[in-house]
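**Polypeptide and fold**
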Amino acid sequence: MEDKYLKDDAGSVICGRNPVIEALKSGANLDTIYIDGSGGSLNVIRRLAKENNIVIKDADDKKLSKLSGGRSHQGVVAVGACGEYVTVDDILEISRNKGTKPFIIICDEIEDPHNLGAIIRTAETSGADGVIIPKRRSASLNATVFKTSAGAASYVPVARVSNLAACIDTLKENGIWIYGTDASGSDYTKTDLTGSCALVIGSEGNGISRLISSKCDFMMKLPMLGKINSLNASVAAGIFMYEVLRQRGTE
């Protein structure tokens, strides 16, 4: 088995068709499966991954060789998750159990794992109930996220959803106001964040997508006095999260 399994701080990296199939059948905690090609047992892997709600990404041989550490991969590498994903209902239940108004962070296509890890770290320290990420075009709970979060990924519930817009509709049905972050918004210090709220943090390059922006109830902005007109996504997220904490108080 030595040439099929790599162990590191990300958990397991499983290489080869049969080992990946067995991992899928056993219910192993897999985050993403990278595949080069189709047909035969690769199609079996694709089917099992879909049945187990595991993300599949197409990858070339160079990518697979890097993931496998240069070992034989037979066109497929599965990467284990650093933590278990929860459901949106699980996150909502947390605030109900605490007896507090929901405070949720939504990451709209945050693809840099360092940014996602930093956001999760701040979410933990600011008392957020959980973080929601999309399955596609987003970093996931990998080793880099875990390291950057300084372990906070072990404590902050993270839900990964197929349809972020539909998820926001569900949050609204549960009485949660959606706050986007954009330069066209109002001063964040003059926005009432004391109620049930979800903060939407846009991607590093493009900000909040048009569809998700249309779902927001309010838009907030940070003052920009220099020549640079934007902040790193995780830095901006931290400012907004601590504004929620400031307005709600720490008691």
